[in-house]
Amino acid sequence: MTFNFMNDPDAKEKLACLSSKHAVKEMIGQFEKKNLWYDMQIRELESELDNLFGPENFGNEAN
Description:
- This protein is mainly α and 63 residues long.
- 68% of the residues lie in helices and 0% in strands.
- The protein contains one helix and no strands.
- The longest helix is centred in the middle third of the chain and has 43 residues, at 11-53.
- It starts with 10 loop residues before the first helix and ends in a 10-residue tail after the last helix.
């Protein structure tokens, strides 16, 4: 998407909007990466617990 900023009286507002959208997309991307990392850590810890206690024993204490 391109704008002709030379002839557009709202150019500053449009540029600010584009910058805000980009910043929001970047922030969402960072959160998605962090969530993926946390999910991987949780799976790794669950796997270690399964190895220690066995998959049938892990989590039964909470029920």
